[in-house]
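Every protein is a chain of amino acids, and every chain bends into a shape of its own. The protein below has been through that process, and both of its lines are reproduced in full.
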Amino acid sequence: MSSPTPTAVPASLTRPGKPDRLMSAYRIATRPFAAIVARTRTPAPQPVDRDLALVVAETAQVADDVVSLHLESADGSPLPQWHPGAHLDLVLPSGRQRQYSLCGYPGDHSSYRIAVRRIADGGGASIEIHDKITAGTALTARGPRNGFPFAYPHLARANISRVTFIAAGIGITAILPMVVAAAAAGVDWRLTYLGRDEDTMAFLDEITGLDQQRVRIHTGTRLTPEDLLTGIDARTSVYFCGPPALLTDLRTAVDRRATAGFHFERFSPPPVVAGHPFQLHLHRARQTIAVRPDESALAAVRDARPEVAYSCQQGFCGTCRVRVLSGDIDRHGHSNFGNDPDSMLICVDRATTEHLTIDL
């Protein structure tokens, strides 16, 4: 490798026509270092493996149709740190990819815990976990990622005096670590946990170990949003995880009152609002699919090609990203790929034109 050609020494300000003495001395002093740098090879960038090789250490039935998995590193090394609200992108042996909230304890770096409710018509991932995943099964995960972080009141840029947690059904998986963290930090908190009956409610034994004056367990008749938001004021921050219908009702009720914030996580894709129909051309399959105004492009594609990969269905994980060959994109996603003009997230992105061609 040849040495770089040194630049000319600038002229002196006090001796016109003569080189600057200080800069001449500097060039002489740094010449050996410059020669070493010129002969040093810059190492080629190496790919980073962000996959976690995990193994199922234990499975447990924690409620009717709910199983928990304790996951450990395959090589016994400590697992990456996580914070309440985080989830794992789990890749199952079948190739299905799904996201599951971490519901263990963030301080435990030896294992992760997730819990999965069996859903007969949910795409097959929960059935695979319940019927085929046992202790010793090797799994791959990505993350942890956090799209639903818990903001401790004393660290938030707001005047927050209380935190109210509302969990419905399997939504307790995202909420439970937040409650434990709030209790440990001395936060003024309240928890309402909703379920059909106690047999279907996971981790009740752990919740009964918390301050019961702050916990409300409700089964049977559904509470109204007003009942759930009793006592909430402008200094109360609300965290919710549960079914979409209840989320919609709560958001409407929260909009009518002052709070210090409403934070939530979905377990299902957001509804399509004010959508327009379009034709989606699958280039490699040589197939054209009609996307209705009330359905996502992913739903339309999976009706014809059920093997298409997806995960979050909310526009941030990037699993369903595809290359766009022609047409204009109406973007709704929040993935790192969202600014790529040549791709779209078919779970949430749509078309602004009547026709869109993708590389599928």
